[in-house]
Amino acid sequence: MALSGAKENGKEVRIYEYLDELSADLADYISELSEASVKERGVFAIALSGGSLISLMRKLCEAPYSKTVDWAKWYIFWVDERVVAKNHVDSNYKLAKDGFLSKVPIVPSHVHSINDTVSAEKAAEDYEFVIRQLVRTRVISVSDISDCPKFDLILLGMGPDGHIASLFPDHSILDEKAEWVTFLTDSPKPPPERITFTLPVINSASNVAVVVTGSSKAEAAHLAIDDVGPDCPLSSPAKMVQPTKGKLVWYLDKAAASKLDGTKFSE
């Protein structure tokens, strides 16, 4: 059971004492969004990140979800990807395939990974082209206030520096407005070459969930979630996640939430 589930300023913050509870609630949340999207649109377009997020999705591979989720209607994308071979240890595709995709009956042709044989710039260009084609066929919805794709769900992690996807503090790509998918060759966190969704695409999603665990991210969570005024670094990417018309939910364990304003835990 969540220790806290406060809603304010268009975002919901859910805090869990145990990772197993967080994982179970996250599976419930994803399953419910999948069911609603399939009922409304006939498909579920979900974009994944890397890191610990995939392991926290593990409950979806178990009963009842393994049998009740309409996996054939899922379309999988990546919010960001390292430009490395698909079998490389740094590949977000490999992480998702090993820990999740290989354990559920998703249609292989519905899994849209990047072209790992070209430059970061070309990989970003190719990936945006694929997304544009799927927007045209309405596999992915389109925002009614911009031309951006409107994913049913975008799942994000967050780094100790407040980065989300491959959008890092003080990096010029935070200001990218025209492209849906952009690239960088100077990531402050290795590997240096990556592609990433831009902020307008992330903020056009119907639903965004940011999943954060561990005490090393407590300060970044505080700066991103709380109204810290002038103390907040102007380029905290996580704080820039503000869906225009969608819903934002933060999933945090007790350690990650330890510095949030007004959060007191009984020992």
TrEMBL record:
GO terms for molecular function: 6-phosphogluconolactonase activity. It catalyses: 6-phospho-D-glucono-1,5-lactone + H2O = 6-phospho-D-gluconate + H(+). The gene is LOC107823060. Coiled coil: none annotated. It comes from the Eukaryota. It comes from Nicotiana tabacum (Common tobacco). Residues 20-250 form the Glucosamine/galactosamine-6-phosphate isomerase domain. NCBIfam families: pgl. Its EC number is 3.1.1.31. Belongs to the glucosamine/galactosamine-6-phosphate isomerase family. 6-phosphogluconolactonase subfamily. Keywords: Hydrolase. This is Probable 6-phosphogluconolactonase. Pathway: Carbohydrate degradation; pentose phosphate pathway; D-ribulose 5-phosphate from D-glucose 6-phosphate (oxidative stage): step 2/3. SUPFAM superfamilies: NagB/RpiA/CoA transferase-like (SSF100950). It is an enzyme of class 3 (hydrolase).
